[in-house]
Specification:
Number of strands: 11
Structural class: mainly beta
Number of domains: 1
CATH class: Mainly Beta
Distance between the termini: 50 Å
Shape: elongated
CATH topology: Immunoglobulin-like
Helix content: under 10%
Strand content: 35-45%
Radius of gyration: 21 Å
Length: 195
């Protein structure tokens, strides 16, 4: 009767990360005139910046992917990293866009520089980290490393801030229904994958 049992219990949860996009993720390309667009070839619109931030409870290894909510509506060849702008009144594809991350326009925590790394096989292996821009894709993880030339994958980050470039392309006018107003209707979902 001179001893008592002491029990300790604890549960651990992984750190959670929350992404956010400037302007609530809305990118307004403005009203376009048919005189600004090409009749027989694609028209590339001026790039628009989109600030992407990821805030985590603690330093976390993660990667980003972008899923197309208008799958099957992108013009041009089926490429990783291009997303559709919806369909016109005759169900013709309006165009495509890409969201490109440039590591030189990204910062994280107190790291002096970031380098992009990616993996098309679920994180095994990772590409050699470099400072060249890369379009985010649905079938490939995009992460950030702290050392150029590293193939160890993304570094643990607590707060990431990156300015991505949205580059939209409109299909030739002769392939669209111009009898009605054509509304660009691109939509995608940014996903965080914990590693």
């Amino acid at each position: 009767g001179r001893s008592r049992e002491l029990r300790l219990q604890a549960r651990f949860a992984p750190a959670a990360c929350t992404p956010s996009l400037s302007n609530g993720g809305n990118v307004n390309l403005g009203k376009l005139s048919v005189s600004d667009l090409h009749t027989d070839r694609d028209t590339a619109l001026p790039p628009r910046d989109l600030l992407v931030t990821v805030a985590c409870d603690a330093p976390t290894h993660f990667a980003l992917r972008l899923q197309d909510n208008r799958e099957g509506s992108a013009t041009g060849p089926a490429e990783a990293g291009t997303y559709g702008l919806g369909l016109d009144a005759r169900q013709q594809k309006i165009g495509r866009y890409a969201l490109t991350f440039d590591p030189t326009r990204a910062s994280a925590d107190s790291l002096p520089a970031l380098y992009r790394t990616d993996s098309a096989s679920g994180g095994v292996p990772w590409s050699t980290a470099s400072s060249s821009p890369l379009a985010i894709a649905a079938n490939r993880y995009l992460g950030f490393a702290a050392t150029p030339g590293s193939s160890a994958g993304p570094v643990a980050i607590q707060t990431l801030s990156a300015t991505a470039s949205l580059e939209a392309v409109i299909a030739p006018l002769n392939s669209l229904d111009l009898g009605n107003e054509v509304r660009l209707d691109g939509a995608a979902t940014l996903e965080i994958t914990y590693l």
